[in-house]
C-alpha cells in the first residue's frame, strides 16, 4: 500500500449508471455540456473550448498601434498645471494608455515653477526623456540632475527620487516604466520619504551613469554614415541599462526609410525632430516633432522620413526582458523567422 489511501468511486460520491454514464452528487453527467457546467461549479475550467486563446499560432497582443499628438495632448497637461494643485497630485501625469503596450507604460509628466513632486521610491524601473523646459531637475538617490531637452535619465528600482522646477514655464518629460508587468507579477511596492525632498547634491551630468545627454547621443548618430542609424543607450560595460526597459535613438535622413522590422518586442517611439510616417501592420501613422506612438509585439513596421529635415527618434522597448526569458523572435527581410537562444 502506498503512502496515500486509494479513493473508491463511492468515497468520491461518483458512480456509473446502468447505461455507462457518470453520476455525481449533482446528478448524471451525460454530455460535454454537463462536463463543462459541472466542472465549472468547482472552478475547474475546461481548456479545450479555448485552446487557441492560450496557445495562439502567433503573438496576439492586446494593445494596438496608436499615436498621441503632442499639440493635442499638451494643452490639457499644461491646464492641469493650473487646475490640479501640487498638494492634490503626487505626480501630475497624463498616461498614454493607461498601459501603452502590453508590457510598457508611457506618460507625459509636468512640473510647474517652484513645485516639488515629493520623494518616493518603487519597484518599477523608470526612464525619463526630457521634452521641453528649462530649470527642471530630478533628484535620484542623492544625485540632483539638471534636466535638458533630449536627455535620458534613469531612475533605477527602489531609488529615492523627487522632481522639481526653478524658473518660469512648465517642465515636461516622457516617463517610461515597466508598470504593466505587475499585472502578472503582483510584487510592486511604493514607499514615501518622510520629507518632500530626499537629501541630494548637484551631479555632474557628464559623469553620472544614470544620465545620457542628448548632445552626446546626437553626435554618435551623426558620426555614422548611412541614411538610417540606430544606437542603444547602454551602461559603460555595454550591458542594458535595466532588466526590463531598453532606450535607444534613431536618425533617418530626409526622404529615406528604415528597414522593415517585425519582432516579439513591443516599443514606444517619441519624435525628437522632423516629420514622417510609420506603417505599422496595415495602419499608417503620420507624425511630427513631439508626437509619441506605440508598436505592439509582432506587428511589422517601417518608418519613412519626410522631405525637409532629418528625423531623430527616441525609442524604448522591452527587449532585455524578452531576451532574458528566451522569447525574442524576429523576422528578417526575406520573411524567415529567427529565434535567439
In short:
The protein is mainly β and 341 residues long. It contains five helices and 26 strands. 12% of the residues lie in helices and 35% in strands.
Word description of this protein:
The longest helix has 14 residues, at 70-83. This protein folds into three domains: 15-54, no CATH class; 66-212, Jelly Rolls (Sandwich), CATH 2.60.120; 214-339, Jelly Rolls. Helix content is 12%, strand content 35%. It contains five helices and 26 strands. A hairpin with a 5-residue loop joins strand 1 (15-16) and strand 2. The chain is globular and about 75 Å long. The protein has helices at residues 32-40, 51-54, 70-83, 214-222, 319-324, and strands at 15-16, 22-24, 27-29, 66-68, 93-95, 105-111, 116-122, 126-132, 136-140, 143-146, 152-155, 161-165, 171-177, 190-192, 201-202, 211-212, 228-232, 246-252, 267-273, 275-280, 283-288, 292-295, 301-305, 311-317, 329-331, 337-339. The strands form six sheets. It has a six-stranded antiparallel β-sheet. 32% of the residues are buried. With 341 residues, the chain is mainly beta.
Amino acid at each position: 500500500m502506498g503512502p496515500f489511501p486509494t479513493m473508491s468511486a463511492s468515497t468520491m460520491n461518483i458512480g456509473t449508471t446502468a447505461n455507462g454514464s457518470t453520476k455525481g452528487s449533482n446528478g448524471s453527467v451525460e454530455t460535454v455540456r454537463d462536463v463543462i457546467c459541472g466542472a465549472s461549479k468547482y472552478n475547474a475550467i475546461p481548456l479545450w473550448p479555448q485552446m487557441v486563446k492560450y496557445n495562439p499560432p502567433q503573438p496576439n497582443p492586446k494593445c494596438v498601434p496608436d499615436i498621441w499628438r503632442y499639440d493635442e495632448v499638451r494643452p490639457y497637461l499644461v491646464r492641469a498645471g493650473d487646475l490640479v494643485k501640487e498638494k492634490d497630485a503626487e505626480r501630475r501625469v497624463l498616461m498614454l494608455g493607461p498601459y501603452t503596450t502590453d508590457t510598457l507604460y508611457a506618460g507625459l509628466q509636468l512640473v510647474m515653477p517652484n513645485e516639488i513632486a515629493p520623494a518616493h521610491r518603487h519597484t518599477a524601473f523608470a526612464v525619463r526623456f526630457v521634452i521641453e523646459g528649462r530649470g527642471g531637475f530630478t533628484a535620484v538617490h542623492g544625485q540632483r540632475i539638471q534636466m535638458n531637452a533630449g536627455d535620458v535619465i534613469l531612475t533605477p528600482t527602489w531609488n529615492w527620487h523627487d522632481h522639481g522646477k526653478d524658473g518660469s514655464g512648465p517642465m515636461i518629460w516622457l516617463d517610461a516604466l515597466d508598470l504593466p508587468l505587475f499585472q502578472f507579477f503582483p510584487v510592486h511596492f511604493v514607499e514615501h520619504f518622510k520629507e518632500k525632498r530626499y537629501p541630494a547634491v548637484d551631479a555632474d551630468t557628464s559623469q553620472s551613469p544614470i544620465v545620457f545627454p542628448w548632445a552626446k547621443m546626437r553626435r554618435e548618430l551623426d558620426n555614422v554614415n548611412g541614411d538610417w542609424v540606430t544606437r542603444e543607450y547602454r551602461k559603460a560595460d555595454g550591458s542594458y541599462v535595466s532588466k526590463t526597459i531598453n532606450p535607444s535613438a534613431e536618425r533617418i535622413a530626409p526622404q529615406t526609410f528604415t528597414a522593415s522590422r517585425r519582432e516579439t518586442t513591443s516599443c514606444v517611439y517619441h519624435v525628437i525632430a522632423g516629420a514622417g510616417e510609420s506603417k505599422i501592420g496595415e495602419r499608417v501613422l503620420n507624425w511630427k516633432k513631439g508626437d509619441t506612438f506605440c508598436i505592439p509585439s509582432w506587428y511589422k513596421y517601417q518608418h519613412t522620413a519626410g522631405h525637409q529635415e532629418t528625423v531623430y527618434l527616441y525609442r524604448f522597448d522591452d527587449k532585455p526582458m524578452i531576451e532574458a526569458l528566451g522569447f525574442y523572435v524576429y523576422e528578417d527581410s526575406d520573411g524567415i523567422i529567427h529565434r535567439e537562444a
